[in-house]
Structure formats: C-alpha cells, structure tokens
Amino acid sequence: MEQIQIAERLKEKFPEDVLSVSEFRGQVSVTVRKGNVLAIFRYLHDNPETDFDYLQDLCGVDYPSRKPRFEVVYHLYSINHRHSIRLKALVPEEDCSIGSVVPVWIGANWHERECFDMFGVAFKGHPDLRRILMPDDWEGHPLRKDYPLKGPEPENDWKGFREVLEDSERLKGFEWER
Q1: DSSP conformation letters of 26-75
Q2: Is residue 22 in a domain?
C-alpha cells in the first residue's frame, strides 16, 4: 500500500484527528491531534492492511515561535508490507503531554523517555517515565530552543559536576601507568 493511501485511510477512519497530510520528496507526513494517538497507532499496528509492527523512531521537535510549540514525530515501518509513514502529533507548551504508545510498541519506552528528558514532553501512561540521558537532578531540557547555550560559572554549575571532578581527583591514584 502506498503512503498516500495509508494517509487517506487514516483520514477516513479518524476524520476529527487528522489535521493535515503533506508529501515531500516521496515521503508522506500525517499531522494528528494528540488526544487520540493511542487509538490511531493501535489501528495502524493491528490493521492487517497496514501492519506497522516496527516503530523506527520517535523524537521531539521544538518550534518556539509557533503554536502549538512542540511536535512528537513517529516513524513507522511494516516489515511484512515494506512500507513506512511519518506521523506528527502537535503538543502545546501549556499542556506538554501526550499519550504513551508503549502499549502498542514496547520499544517506545526508551524513545519516550529520551523525548521527555530532552524536550520535557510527558507521556501519559508510560510505565517508567524518568530521565534517561541527563542526571535525575538536572534542571531544564537541553534540546529546547530556549535552553541556555552557556551555563553558569563553574562554581555555580550543576552540583553533580563538582562531585565528578572530586571523584576524579580522588581516584587518580588507581590509574595505570603507561
């Protein structure tokens, strides 16, 4: 099945949730409302005609001057049918959350945690939503466009950094001489 046909099926099945369909250089993107993502993805996964059994990627995008500010982008692939499609869910800054797709693809677990950690998008129903790349006590979300490019002076930096430096100095005696 062609990507544009899959997009048309989605528009028929979820007319209130599909906001737009765009095609660029042979790739189709379907933009959807965030409120019904679990049902949309369950349909794409369970329908034998689409059979999207593989979530290739899930990532966040920040458009600070646009409303809604964030997108969560999903790249789906069907191993059986060898077709793919991209879905984008719009997420406003004032309600920076969306439903988890872990019940559909267990592999979404780590992708959602990364998106949460880097962009601050919370995934409702996620089984273990916590930071995955940054330390637990880190403040902010580094891939947001308004994240500061330069940190504070070293003495005011993240407290864990000072601990790492102190541990490094303390453990130098255990290094191998070459």
Answers
A1: TEEEEEE-GGGHHHHHHHHHH-TTT---EEEEEEEEE-TTSSS-EEEEEE
A2: yes
Give me the CATH number covering residue 22. 3.30.460.80
148 within domain boundaries = no
Burial pattern 136-145, b for ≥16 Cβ within 10 A else e, equals eeeeebebbe
Flag whether 163 is in a domain: no
Instruction: Say if CB 122 and CB 129 are below 8 A apart.
Output: yes
Q: How much is the pTM?
A: 0.86
Cβ pair 37, 55 in contact under 8 A? no
Domain total in the chain: 1
137 contacts 151 by C-beta, under 8 angstroms: no
Name the band, by pLDDT with cuts 50, 70 and 90, for residue 32.
very high
